[in-house]
Amino acid sequence: VVQLGAITAFFAALDAAAASLPVPVPQWAVFILFFGLSLRSRLFSPLDNSRPDLGKAVEGKATGGFNDRIMPSWTPPGVTFPIMWILIVAPLRAASSVLVWEQVGHLCDASILTLMLHLSVGDTWNTVNNVERRLGAAVPGVLCVW
Question: Distance (Å, rounded) from C-alpha 71 to C-alpha 143?
Fold first, then answer.
């Protein structure tokens, strides 16, 4: 709730600033905003959202979230996740958010804030799963973002 409120206040401030500009906000700027939020929405979270150590994961060592639990045999290597996130997930979220923004004309819109709620739930899940290590409690979070 705190994270979503912070993002909403940030979007309201951006909307107010954009309304005072003599030129329209370019699409690429909105794309960069949502691309960045797809990668770093946790900047708005008051929780500890530290991530697993990628260096340890690549070396095959245990680190919170990678190589520290029994995974199904079909699970891709841990290094796959950040690559897919940067090349596929973040650009698709950014592009779809730009399309919505073009239609509604502002950032503080229920449809865009729904994506921000999704990101906020995901950030909370990361804290519960990777930092607090409450694996069973993390299951409902997966259902919330699915």
Answer: 19
How many angstroms separate the Cα of 95 from the Cα of each of 32, 71, 88, 102, 124? 10, 32, 11, 11, 24
CB 146 within 8 A of CB 140: no
Q: Please write the tens of the pLDDT for every residue from 58-89.
A: 676 666 656 667 777 888 877 788 899 899 99
* Burial class of residue 46, CB neighbours in 10 A (0-12, 13-18, 19+): exposed
Instruction: Express each pLDDT in 111-135 by its tens digit.
Output: 999 999 988 888 888 778 777 777 7
DSSP characters over 12-73: HHHHHHHHT-SSPPPHHHHHHHHHHHHHHGGGG-SS--PPP-HHHHHTT--BTTBSSS---T
